[in-house]
Write a structure and sequence with these properties.
5-stranded mixed sheet; disordered N terminus; 8 strands; 3-stranded mixed sheet; alpha/beta
C-alpha cells in the first residue's frame, strides 16, 4: 500500500515493506490468528494489521465486555481499509457492524492506496468517531501524515451513518521518535481513550478527548502487548494439555 503525504522519515519506515516470510502460527485468540512473524514485529518493527486486530479483540473481550451498557465499536484494520476503498459506503451495510445504537467507533487508519499489495502502507494513525457528538478525532503520531486518509474515512463513515461528521485533527497528539512505532501508538492510545476516558465517563458527561501533553512510551507499550500475547499462549497451551484429543499441529487457542 504505497503511502503518500508528509513523512519525516522519508518513507523508509520499516522492514515490513519486505514480504512476510513466515506464516508459522503462534496463537489463536477468538477470531484472530497470530503468526510468529506478527509477534516478531512487536519487538522493534512496524506492526502488522493482525497485531492491531488482536489488540482490538483483546480490549473487547477482556475489558469492554465488562461494561454491558457500552455501545463502542472497535473496527478492525481490514474493515477500516474496506471503508476507505469502497466508492459507495452504503454498499457495506451488511459487511460492517450495525451502528444504529453505537456511541463511539475506533478506526485504525493506514495510508495504503493499493489493496493488491500485502502488508503495504507506511503509517498508522487512529480515528475515533463520537457518533453522539458527530465529531471525528484524529490522532497521528507523525502529524499530519495520514490527514487525507482520515478525512476521506470520516466522509465515508458520515455517509454510512447519515450524519454530517466534523473532522477534528489533533496536532498535539503524542509524536513518535522513529519510523516504526506508529502502530504501537495507535494501540496504546486506543486503550487509554477507551479505558481512561470513555468507559469511566458518567452519562452525559463532556469528555476531553485530547491526548495533548501526554507522554507515550512505545517501548513499554510493545512489552505490554508481548506480555499479553505470551500470557494467552501459555493459557492456550495449558488448555490443550488438558484436552482429551489435543491437536499439536494447531497453535495454542483461547476463546
Amino acid at each position: 500500500m504505497g503511502g503518500s503525504g508528509f513523512h519525516p522519515f522519508g518513507g523508509s519506515v520499516s522492514r515490513h515493506l519486505k514480504r512476510l516470510n513466515s506464516d508459522d502460527p503462534h496463537l489463536s485468540y477468538y477470531d484472530v490468528r497470530l503468526t510468529k512473524e506478527d509477534v516478531n514485529t512487536l519487538k522493534d518493527d512496524w506492526l502488522t494489521d493482525n497485531v492491531i486486530a488482536f489488540w482490538e479483540e483483546y480490549l473487547e473481550h477482556e475489558h469492554l465486555a465488562h461494561f454491558r451498557g457500552a455501545q463502542i465499536v472497535l473496527l478492525r484494520p481490514s474493515m477500516s481499509f474496506m471503508l476507505i476503498q469502497t466508492p459507495d459506503p452504503l454498499t457495506l451495510r451488511d459487511a460492517l457492524p450495525n451502528f444504529s445504537k453505537t456511541s463511539h467507533i475506533f478506526l485504525p487508519i493506514n495510508d495504503c492506496r493499493n489493496p493488491s499489495v500485502p502488508e503495504g502502507g507506511s503509517h498508522w494513525s487512529l480515528l475515533v468517531v463520537s457518533v453522539v457528538d458527530q465529531v471525528a478525532f484524529h490522532y497521528d503520531s507523525l502529524h499530519p501524515a495520514n490527514r487525507d486518509e482520515a478525512i476521506a474515512t470520516t466522509r465515508k463513515l458520515g455517509t454510512l451513518l447519515n450524519k454530517d461528521l466534523q473532522f477534528l485533527d489533533l496536532p498535539d497528539s503524542p509524536q513518535q521518535e522513529n519510523g516504526s512505532d506508529c502502530g504501537v501508538f495507535v494501540c496504546v492510545e486506543m486503550k487509554h481513550l477507551l479505558m481512561r476516558k470513555l468507559l469511566l465517563a458518567h452519562d452525559k458527561e463532556k469528555i476531553n478527548m485530547s491526548m495533548g501533553g501526554r507522554h507515550l512510551d512505545a517501548s513499554r507499550g510493545r512489552k505490554e502487548m508481548l506480555r499479553v500475547i505470551e500470557g494467552f499462549r501459555k493459557e492456550g497451551e495449558r488448555r490443550r494439555s488438558r484436552s482429551s484429543s489435543p491437536n499439536k499441529n494447531a497453535p495454542p487457542r483461547v476463546d
